[in-house]
Amino acid sequence: MSALLVMAVALPGLAALVCVLASERLGDRAGALGAAAAAAALCAVVPTAFSALSQSPVTAPGLFADRLSVVMLALVLGVSAVVQSYANRYLSGDPRQARLIAAMGATTTAVAVLVSSATFGVLVAAWVASGLGLLVMLAQRSDLPAARTGLRRTAAAHAVGDLALIAAAAVLWTTIGGLDLRGVEAGAQELAGQQLHLFGVGVPAAPLVACLLLVAAMGRCALVPLHRWLPATLAAPTPVSAFMHAGLVNAGGFLLVRMGPVFGASGLATHLAFTVGALTALYGTALMLARPDAKGALAYSTIGQMGFMVMACALGAFAAVVFHLVAHGMYKATLFLSVDSAIHNRKRHRAVPLPAPAGTGWPPPLRLAAAALVPAAAISLALATFARGALEQPGAIVLLAFAWFSAARALWVWLGATPGRAAVGMGAAASVCVAYAALVAVAKDFLGPVLGEAAHSASPWLVLVPAAVMAALSLVWFRSSQSTRSVLYTRALDAGTVVTDDGWRSTTPRQPSLRIPSGV
């Protein structure tokens, strides 16, 4: 099994090496080679996963695969295979295809090493390597001013996060001689009583490392105030955007989950993470709603989701975070790879308007009551019966509230657009909510044995603060005049504008408007 783990990690990198050495011979077949290598690596993960489930974690030099690792490996390799297959067609005839596929394969290997690292030192090396791989992919269109701006901002934000992670590694090495990720809880206990002497002053090592881990996650996840790099990368090719939003940006969440006992040992770090996550979630969601272009809206929705994910980390709901991370990664990859088709369909519907909805429209109060109560009843039923494990982590209630809001919003739109098929919409919304609650419970049962606990997680009651802020902002929006709405919209649109090095402002939509589904 050790050989299979090494194979799963190394195959994408070996394909990248072939693309570099034989780029002229491969031509348009580079993407097919990269996709095949990632798919073969994914197949190698399957027996590794069975072994990790039935026996002890699979180990290899510098690597190990437990339940968390195999889930993340499946996500990374699966997304890489699909994206590289798409890139093979998307970049057909482009002489830079082999170079991009090589960078994507090497980055896939770096991320695979990151999620299966056995020691913190290996994790740091893979973290830095994956960031460098992203910079190489973003440099594919360095001839464009917008791409150069994105490259510069990404390098700056990642440098801040990488330096913080390297500093955390230095503190761990100085105090406890490094950290074995196969026993993070034991390492956290050993670190708890250590002090680092800086300029003659003793500094508790545990809170320092926890805060440095948060800064590293903020840089990679594009959290406020290190968020400006992600919206500036819209000039990257679509495969790069899909790969980045589905896998690389999520690395900060994985870091906090894997280092959960160390991160959760500091109340300062968890409450700071909750604050930063809440601000980022509100900021990203507001700007997503204001963006007139498809990729811009998707970029800010990712920022909002990353803030939401870090909020859940602060609450100690690590299993729920992994579930959210995987679901968001697959969903966002699908959105980026299908955005061209969605824009084409929207143009067609504008040219040939859809027929008026059949059926009698629902009165707004009845429509609102149905949209709110049907998902709530479905989630409550699931939690009262087979999905009780979802509530074992108090922070998981945040994900369930998110599922309720998304389903309620979708059902509200459905009842307005297709009142003649209300039963279909309500049945679909209830089924999705039940499945969501069940999957959160399954994630807790599946990942619980390998995830540590946060000793000082933030209180779930703190969620009421951003919820109240969102409710107040919504009330202000709906009760304000049209002129006030115009000012607020203009402010939000201007806040999301990317100014390049040569002064170009991306205020003009590069693609037609595209409505992003609620809850992205």
UniProtKB/TrEMBL annotation:
Keyword vocabulary terms for this entry: Membrane, Transmembrane, Transmembrane helix, Ubiquinone
Subcellular location(s) per record: Endomembrane system; Membrane
Coiled-coil residue windows: none
Membrane-spanning residues: 32-53, 65-87, 107-135, 155-176, 196-217, 229-248, 268-290, 302-327, 366-384, 396-417, 423-447, 459-478
One Gene Ontology term of the molecular function aspect: NADH dehydrogenase activity
Chief localization: membrane
One GO BP annotation of this record: ATP synthesis coupled electron transport
Segments forming domain NADH:quinone oxidoreductase/Mrp antiporter transmembrane: 126-350
Keyword Iron recorded: no
Signal peptide range in chain numbering: none
GO CC terms of this entry: endomembrane system; membrane
Keyword presence, Transmembrane: yes
Limits of the NADH-Ubiquinone oxidoreductase (complex I) chain 5 N-terminal domain: 62-99
InterPro entries: ND/Mrp_TM, NU5C-like, Proton_antipo_N
Membrane topology: Multi-pass membrane protein
Protein name: NADH:ubiquinone oxidoreductase subunit 5 (Subunit L)/multisubunit Na+/H+ antiporter MnhA subunit
